[in-house]
Design goal:
Belongs to the GHMP kinase family. IspE subfamily. Pathway: Isoprenoid biosynthesis; isopentenyl diphosphate biosynthesis via DXP pathway; isopentenyl diphosphate from 1-deoxy-D-xylulose 5-phosphate: step 3/6. Pfam families: GHMP_kinases_C, GHMP_kinases_N. 30% of the residues lie in helices and 28% in strands. It is an alpha+beta fold. It has two domains: 165 residues, Ribosomal Protein S5, domain 2 (2-Layer Sandwich); 105 residues, GHMP kinase, C-terminal domain (Alpha-Beta Plaits), CATH 3.30.70. Strands 1, 2, 3, 4, 5, 6, 7, 8, 9 and 10 form a ten-stranded mixed beta sheet that branches. A hairpin with a 6-residue loop joins β8 and β9. α1 packs parallel to α2, α2 packs parallel to α10 and α7 crosses α8. The longest helix is centred in the middle third of the chain and has 16 residues. The chain is globular, with a radius of gyration of 19 Å. Bound molecules: 4-diphosphocytidyl-2-C-methyl-D-erythritol and adenosine-5'-triphosphate (ATP). The site of 4-diphosphocytidyl-2-C-methyl-D-erythritol has 19 residues, from β1, β2 and α5.
Length: 286
């Protein structure tokens, strides 16, 4: 390992184009079907290695201890693997654009980018599958960001089939609230028995987000935002929210909607991407 190697790496957002919950496992996690669409908006990390073995985080206050930040947890998870030399350390600057608890997978993407960057900078030579296994222990959405492809997903989100989705523009909107994923998945009235569908049925338009009725009920702000965005197209929740999105015919149309978004809500105009810039950022180092 070389001392003081530095890499800027992106951490893209995702939206769930649909989310069906098909069952509940014995460990409480839910089996689901979803399509992860990666977006060209996201966080950014600057990772600089050291040989003192220390992991340090430089980033905005997310209201959690540094040791709970998924960036630090990802680095520590790599350090805990048997092949990682003791002296491997890093300072990671986190530049957040994505909201926490937004359903855009920001924390999970930060974690995946950390795994990808440190695997390359520390010269660990771990396979994508090994990084995905380490990532899955940090969050159900981490493996897709390690893969770095838009994908069809099953299981708890870790059984991935890469997809090349057609070009698309989205208006993504964040209502003025944060949704707690665990609260939605543990709700008594959550639909947990949606019959599995085929990819063909999804592309034919036969899908929804099973979390949406519960989130609308518990978070009136999300309900209001969905009703507002519905005026412009098919508005849908991503993950367990709070963010919602609507597919637009063009970038111009998305920007027109963005201009009309009430000030209390944050909005992004985003293009769908099929490959993560994070993977490209590390490729030159491997
Ligand atoms: C809803 C999605 O955003 C869809 O992309 C993800 O499945 C959630 O992924 P995540 O935020 O990385 O979620 P995790 O941090 O792994 O899990 C948070 C909590 O959600 C519940 N959870 C999550 C994923 C899943 N397939 N089944 C669950 O029941 C569990 O109670 C878990 O304790
Ligand atoms: N680097 C990070 N960025 C954002 N949240 C983080 C980070 N590290 C830890 N967290 C914690 O993780 C939780 C959810 O983060 P995340 O941004 O992945 O949620 P999300 O956008 O709802 O994603 P998902 O779609 O995976 O549910 C929050 O409670 C937050 O405090």
């Amino acid at each position: 390992m070389t001392d003081g190697r530095r890499l800027r790496i992106h951490a893209p957002a995702k939206i769930n184009l649909f989310l069906h919950i098909t069952g509940r496992r014995d460990d409480g996690y839910h089996n689901l079907q979803t399509v992860f669409q990666l977006l060209d908006i996201g966080d950014s990390l600057v990772v600089e290695t050291n040989r003192s073995g220390v992991i340090a985080l430089d980033g905005p206050d997310l209201g959690i201890a540094d040791s709970d930040n998924l960036v630090v947890r990802a680095a520590m998870a790599l350090k805990a693997l048997p092949g990682t030399p003791e002296h491997c350390g890093a300072t990671i600057r986190l530049e957040k654009q994505l909201p926490s608890g937004g359903g855009l997978g920001g924390g999970s993407s930060d974690a995946a980018s950390t795994l990808l960057a440190l695997n390359a900078l520390w010269g660990l030579r771990l396979s994508t599958a090994a990084l995905q296994r380490t990532g899955a222990a940090l969050g159900a959405d981490v493996p897709v960001f390690v893969l770095g492809r838009s994908a069809w997903a099953e299981g708890i989100g870790e059984q991935l089939t890469p997809l090349d989705l057609p070009p698309a523009w989205y208006l993504v909107l964040k209502p003025d609230c944060a949704v707690h994923t665990g609260e939605i998945f543990s709700h008594r009235q959550l639909t947990r028995d949606t019959p599995p569908i085929t990819m063909h049925a999804f592309f034919a338009g036969d899908s929804r987000n099973d979390c949406e009725p519960i989130v609308r009920q518990l978070y009136p702000e999300v309900d209001n935002a969905l009703n507002w965005l519905q005026n412009f197209g098919e508005a849908r929740l991503t993950g367990t929210g709070a963010c919602i999105f609507c597919r637009c015919g063009s970038e111009v149309q998305a920007r027109r909607i963005a201009e009309q978004v009430p000030a209390r809500w944050k909005a992004w105009v985003a293009a769908g991407i099929n490959r993560s810039p994070a993977v490209k950022n590390t490729e030159l180092l491997l």
